[in-house]
Write a structure and sequence with these properties.
Layout lengths: L1 H7 L1 H8 L5 E6 L7 H5 L6 E6 L4 E5 L1 H4 L15 E7 L1 H5 E2 L9 H13 L1 H12 L14 H32 L4 E7 L2 E7 L18 H23 L3 H4 L3 H4 L28 H4 L1 H24 L19 H4 L5 H23 L23 H22 L22 H16 L8 H20 L3 H28 L12 H28 L11 H14 L22 H28 L20 H16 L2 H21 L9 H30 L7 E2 L3 H7 L15 H16 L10 H8 L2 E7 L1 H12 L12 E6 L3 H8 L1 H4 L1 H4 L30 H4 L1 E3 L5 E3 L1 E5 L20 E3 L22 H15 L4
Keywords: Membrane, Transmembrane, Transmembrane helix
Protein name: Fungal lipase-like domain-containing protein
Length: 960
């Protein structure tokens, strides 16, 4: 062999010697969606795909690249006997297709990307679901029903979008853009003629002019169907990715333990290691039926409510309807109203039943102590009941649409200009906002396991009392009802805050244990911004300047009529008087939220300006490598100054938890302010009236402008060859956890990534094969194999999830053939704080992390929450085994930098070289110009190779 080696040369000889590597270094990228070539440090022409498809793929260097002679210490050269592969999963989080559209481009792709923005609130609600106390056991004496509350909140978000679609289609276009049919005597050449006309919004497409000839009932029925189609479109957008990779999971899932094997021999297992966590797509699909059933029910109620009271002028205002006798039998049982009344009753009953089933659904995996056979297979879950509710909702909506279509040509809009154009929309948006506010208040105490026996009656009392106070506002009864509502709400707030403050672990949990509140408030705020912007944007578009129906002065009327006549010279001139100018009316709730959101946004911006000024004042204070150490002297050289500048920028970004908390609180205050604003039907005069008019004018423009900028950013983003979701970083973070709170949320890519990554590890180690079918030489070869899972940023979270998923494999939790190398990860500082039951210190076995200080120069100085006692088997324990002399050796290394704006240690800031965490160089020594290393480039650092070599030696010295 040696003469042949000399003949082939050193590079070819090395390729022959390393033909059978025993260690697999498997790299996993993070939030930046690093391309495979960059992951491996090679050119695109030097790598090849060895497994996978266009969504999830494994890549390695080509034989030609492996045989290329490279200088000593080149980071592109793996250690001897190590095979380096890269796993690319970013396409699952960022790409999708639409049935019957496929690889859309141009305008179609832009519209689809804009629709993806609309489902962001649903994704945030799903994140809030996993931020609750996810490990609360079932059947305890005083459950918090936290999962049910978050799912209820998700249902309210769906109904808010139903109300938005109905407002646009029915309340604006149907009730206001098509006026009543009017007969007018006009002068024509040779005499006088009677002309029938319907005044319409000229901004509408010309193709809709023919709708003016239809009866008002037929037109309203079509618009109601379009509103339902808008909701179905939103549901389809959230399901586009699920068809692409959730169904592949069963094909990539590895062999598990034999049925009937206990899951917690010794200590209990963390939630991510329990069967069923990544496999409940069928179980959670019942939410799809439930939300659509509620959507059709609400649309039917809105239609029936309007047509029931269309002929009752005293009932056109929502406030005081009960006091004016609108809820009595003389209205509901009158001739022709029984059908509408029945629709309203059935619709409300269906909404209550669906809400109950949404709250009662349980999607959590098996509790510890269970046996694998105790689980009901996901595919065996029955969806018959919820499918039946969906069909009932469709039938109820169909009944309402059919009845509306045959209701004749009576005017759709009440003659009273002060009334809400479509009566069913008078109070629904405000009611949904109030419900979201109450649920956000409850969410403050969810992590403290606020007893459902307390918050459920309080929520029912608050919402029910508010409805009663709305219907009967006057007299002693109204005062008593409002007082009861106020007491219930304040009492609920006090109980929730007190429960959170008394919770012992709030210092080591995200937002001091108020994570569900922050995330739900943010979801509600984003949903209301998008909803209000949609409604106000449509109104601004329809109120086109210069249109005859929007003219405000005689000279404008004349000019507009002349323009119309000039456009159609073949028509005989008809002299008519222009109708009075029409101003479109926006239902309550949307304008008020726009005003409040802009007001609190201004306060938030001022706070950010103060924070930036504070950081500028602290620029002269150098930051040490280890928080709490003596600060270094003031830098004088260019390199030291650049390093300090990078550390300050990273320290500012490390306050992300605090900043997101401020954003969530801001949205919550905007929602509360929307409810506290005076009744828009009551005219306000004087200074406050002028101030209110000015606020409405500028806030509505601001919200519409933000919406337009968002649409422009997402329509222009992505590739023409693929539907790239906007703001990829947001999707990477938001779509990691399973979809369990909202069926229209973006699908969870980890439901394929985690099993697929596990499958690659098991294939390399031979765990997916029956040893009895292998030859003796093959068994010996597989017995010597090892794996180093190398993960960057969010990839560290994926890697830990994959290791936990392997605990039910043949080797069990403590597999000494596997090691973990992470760098620039958010496991401890973010995921461990936001989702303690999934990635917290009791799961990882690491030191808890506190939240960053907002006003200090170094956000991590003095942040040291107490230790955690874990009752479960931890990841660190599973990766620890006795070393030489019986000293425990942990097969986990992690790299970090103070200049990394989104990367942190996984255990503690330390540089003693003895623990898990090790600092990496902050200056890129291989760059031509001075470059401060930040979140990328860890594998090129010398510390990476040192820790990789140490893990390889540890693995080769363990076991066989």
């Amino acid at each position: 062999m040696r003469p042949m080696m000399r003949l082939l040369g050193r590079s070819a000889a090395r390729a022959v010697e390393e033909a059978s590597p025993d260690v697999l270094e498997l790299r996993v990228h993070g939030v930046a969606n690093t391309p495979p070539a960059a992951m491996l440090g090679l050119d695109p022409t030097q790598i090849e795909q060895v497994d996978g498809d266009q969504l999830g793929s494994f890549w390695a260097a080509t034989p030609r690249a492996l045989g290329t002679e490279r200088p000593e210490g080149d980071p592109r050269v793996p250690p001897p006997g190590v095979r380096r592969e890269g796993y690319s999963w970013g396409a699952m989080a960022r790409l999708s297709t639409v049935p019957a559209v496929g690889r859309a481009s141009g305008l179609v792709a832009g519209v689809i990307r804009a629709l993806w923005v609309l489902i962001i609130p649903f994704g945030l609600a799903n994140v809030a679901y996993w931020s609750r106390d996810a490990d609360e056991p079932s059947g305890i004496r005083r459950p918090s029903a936290a999962g049910g509350l978050v799912r209820m909140f998700g249902l309210v978000l769906t109904l808010l979008w139903v109300a938005t679609a109905a407002t646009v289609a029915l309340g604006i276009v149907g009730a206001q853009c098509y006026g009543p049919r009017t007969t007018l005597d006009v002068a024509v050449p040779g005499g006088v003629a009677s002309v029938d006309y319907v005044q319409t919004c000229t901004a509408l497409p010309d193709q809709l002019d023919s709708w003016a000839r239809w009866s008002s009932g037929s037109r309203t029925a079509v618009l109601a169907v379009l509103a339902a189609a808008a909701v179905l479109t939103l549901a389809a957008v959230g399901s586009t990715g699920r068809l692409r990779y959730e169904r592949r999971m069963s094909g990539t899932k590895s062999r598990g333990r034999a049925p009937g094997t206990a899951l917690d021999a010794g200590k209990p297992w963390p939630m991510l290691a329990r069967p069923g966590f990544w496999t409940h797509s069928q179980r959670s699909s019942v939410l799809w039926y439930q939300h659509l059933a509620a959507s059709f029910a609400l649309l039917a109620v809105l239609l029936a409510w309007h047509f029931l009271y269309r002929g009752e002028p005293q009932c056109w205002q929502a406030t005081g309807m009960g006091a004016r006798g609108c809820l009595g039998s003389d209205v509901w049982a009158a001739a022709g109203n029984q059908g509408w009344a029945a629709m309203i009753g059935l619709g409300i009953l269906l909404l209550v039943v669906v809400a109950w089933r949404v709250a009662r659904l349980r999607l959590d995996p098996l509790p510890h102590g269970s046996v694998a056979t105790d689980a009901v297979p996901d595919r065996a879950v029955s969806r018959a009941t919820d499918a039946a509710l969906f069909l009932v909702g469709v039938a109820l909506f169909g009944w309402a649409v059919a009845t509306v279509a045959t209701s004749g040509d009576a005017p759709l809009r009440p003659a009273d200009a002060s009334a809400v154009p479509f009566l069913g929309l008078a109070a629904v948006p405000s009611l949904l906002i109030g419900l979201m506010v109450v649920l956000c208040v409850v969410a403050v105490g969810l992590r403290a396991r606020l007893w459902a026996g307390i918050w459920v009656p309080a929520v029912v009392l608050s919402v029910g009392g508010a409805v009663i106070a709305l219907l009967w506002p006057d007299g002693a009864g109204g005062v008593v009802t409002r007082s009861v509502v106020a007491v219930a709400f304040v009492g609920l707030l006090v109980v929730a805050v007190r429960a959170n403050v008394r919770h012992p672990s709030r210092a080591r949990e995200g937002w001091a244990g108020r994570g569900p509140f922050v995330l739900l408030a943010t979801a509600a705020g984003v949903a209301m911004v998008l909803s209000a912007a949609t409604v106000l944007g449509v109104v601004a578009w329809l109120e086109a300047p210069g249109a005859p129906e929007n003219a405000t002065a005689p000279e404008q009327v004349t000019a507009a009529l002349e323009a119309v006549g000039t456009a159609d010279r073949l028509r005989d001139p008809v002299v008519v008087d222009a109708a009075s100018p029409v101003r479109l009316v926006t239902p309550p709730g949307y304008v008020e939220f726009a005003v409040m959101s802009v007001a609190v946004l201004v306060v938030g911006v001022l706070l950010m300006v103060v924070l930036a000024a504070r950081m500028g004042a602290l620029r002269t204070k150098p930051l040490p490598v280890i928080p709490g150490d003596n600060p270094p002297p003031r830098p004088e050289k260019g390199v030291d100054q650049a390093v300090q500048r990078g550390r300050r920028h990273a320290a500012l970004a490390h306050r992300a938890e605090r900043i997101v908390g401020i954003v969530g609180t801001t949205f919550f205050l905007a929602l509360v302010g929307t409810l506290l604003l005076p009744d828009p039907d009551k005219e306000v005069t004087g200074f406050w009236g002028d101030l209110w008019a000015l606020g409405v004018q500028w806030s509505t423009k601001a919200v519409v402008l933000v919406f337009a900028l968002v649409v422009a950013s997402v329509v222009g983003a992505g590739s023409k060859k693929a539907l790239a979701r906007p703001w990829g970083l947001l999707w990477d973070l938001m779509c990691f956890l399973p979809r369990a709170a909202h069926p229209f949320a973006p699908p969870c890519y980890a439901e394929r990534v985690v099993p697929e990554l596990r499958g690659r590890i098991d294939t390399w180690l031979g765990d997916d094969r029956d040893p009895a079918t292998l030859s003796a030489s093959r068994r010996r070869e597989l017995a010597d194999r090892r794996v180093v899972l190398s993960a960057h940023s969010l990839g560290g979270v994926v890697a830990v999830a994959a290791l936990l998923a392997r605990w039910d494999g043949p080797a069990g939790p403590c597999d000494d053939r596997v090691a973990l190398l992470t760098y620039g990860t958010q496991l401890r500082a973010y995921f461990g704080r936001f989702f303690p039951e999934l990635f917290g210190p009791a799961v990882l076995g690491t030191t808890p992390a506190g939240r960053a200080r907002l006003w200090a120069a170094d956000p991590w100085t003095g942040v040291a929450p107490g230790p955690v006692t874990s009752e479960t088997l931890t990841v660190v324990e599973s990766l620890t085994a006795p070393g030489p002399g019986g000293v425990p050796r942990t097969r986990w290394r992690s790299l970090w930098r103070r200049t990394d704006f989104i990367g942190f240690p996984v255990d503690a800031y330390a540089d003693d070289g003895a623990g898990i965490d090790h600092p990496a160089q902050e200056v890129d020594g291989k760059a031509y110009l001075l470059t401060i290393a930040a979140h990328s480039g860890y594998p090129a650092a010398p510390e990476y190779r040192a820790q990789l070599d140490d893990l390889v030696r540890t693995l080769r010295g363990s076991g066989g």
